Amino acid sequence: MHRYKDLKVWKKAVDLSYKVYEVTKEFPSEERFGLTSQMRRSAVSIASNIAEGAGRNTDGEFIQFLGISQGSAFELETQTLIASEMNFIEKAQSTFIIDEINSISNMIFKLKQNLKS
């Protein structure tokens, strides 16, 4: 079992969740059950799956949950691009979120590599 709260990637993912919640507050009210909800769930899923995987019994299980986390990151990136194209989010905010997603994705990839070796 790993201590997820000590993982920098988990901390970055939690911070990203806060940012996504902050940004989506400004979305149109008709998006509350659409893109707002999807983006928030994807963002929370990144950190949640890192934590859940860290609590599993084997590195193999942890790697599996890191893969799910990675998938949620890609979902969030796609949703951010859509929100940007629909002018729900400013370009600077979109760029920041996508840069954070890319950083987190790279960290997840490296963590998976370390667990495999």
Note the run of SSEs as H and E. HHHH
Return the CATH topology of the domain at 38-50 and 57-117: de novo design (two linked rop proteins)
Please count the helical segments.
4
Broad shape: elongated
- Count of beta strands: 0
Major sheet characteristics? none
Structural class: mainly alpha
Q: Give the termini separation.
A: 16 Å
- Tell me the strand percentage band: under 5%
Q: Average pLDDT value?
A: 95
Radius of gyration: 14 Å
- CATH superfamily of the domain at 38-50 and 57-117, by name, is 23S rRNA-intervening sequence
What does this structure look like?
With about 120 residues, this protein is an all-alpha fold. It has a domain at about 40-50 and about 55-115: 23S rRNA-intervening sequence (de novo design (two linked rop proteins), Up-down Bundle), CATH 1.20.1440. It contains 4 helices and no strands. Helix 1 packs antiparallel against helix 2, helix 1 (about 10-25) packs antiparallel against helix 4 (about 90-115) and helix 2 (about 35-55) packs antiparallel against helix 3. It starts with 7 loop residues before the first helix and ends with a helix. The model has no long low-confidence stretch (mean pLDDT about 95).
